Amino acid sequence: MNSKNTKTRKYTRFGLAIGIIVLSLGYLAWTGVEQTKDYYVTIKQLHESHGDSRRLRVGGTVRPGSIRMSGSSAEFVIVEKEENQPEQVLQVSYKGKEPPPDTFKDDAEVRLQIRAPEKRPDGSGCSILERILS
Question: Is 43 exposed, middle or buried (0-12, 13-18, 19+ CB in 10 A)?
C-alpha cells in the first residue's frame, strides 16, 4: 500500500510540474504576441489618440519640399487626403540609426512605425518614428 501512495505522489508532482511549464509557456507566448502587435491608424485617429503607448503604424504621402535630412535623421510632413474630407497632416521626426530607405522622397507613399506620438506646443502633431517603411 505504501508503494501505491509513493507512485501517486510521484505522478502528482510530475503532473504539477507539467502544468506549471505549460502555464509558463502560455504566458510567455501571450506577452510576446502583445508586445509585437502593431495597430494601423489613420492620421486623424493618431491626432485623436491621447498618450497611446502602443506601437502604431500610419501611412500617407510625403509632402513635396518638406523633407529635411541631417545624417540618418529626418524631419518631414506626411499628408492623407480622403474623398470629401479635409487633408490630414502629420509632422514627423525620425532619428534612426539607419538612414531612410532610397525610396523615401517627395510624393512617396510611406508607412511609418511609430513608438511615441506627442503634441508640440503649437498644437500640431509630431511623431517619433521607430522605422520608415516605404
Answer: buried
How far apart, in whole angstroms, are the C-alpha atoms of residue 96 and residue 69? 12
Does the model's pTM come out above 0.70? no
Q: Which residues contact 82 (CB under 8 A, 6 or more apart)?
A: 88
71-100 per-residue burial string, b: 16 or more CB within 10 A, e: under 16:
eeebebbbebeeeeeeebbbbbbbeeeeeb
pLDDT tens digits for range 14-61: 999 999 999 999 998 888 776 677 778 888 887 776 656 667 888 889
How do strand 73-80 and strand 68-70 relate by DSSP bridges? antiparallel
Q: What does the alpha-carbon distance between residue 116 and residue 126 come to, in Å, rounded to a whole number? A: 9
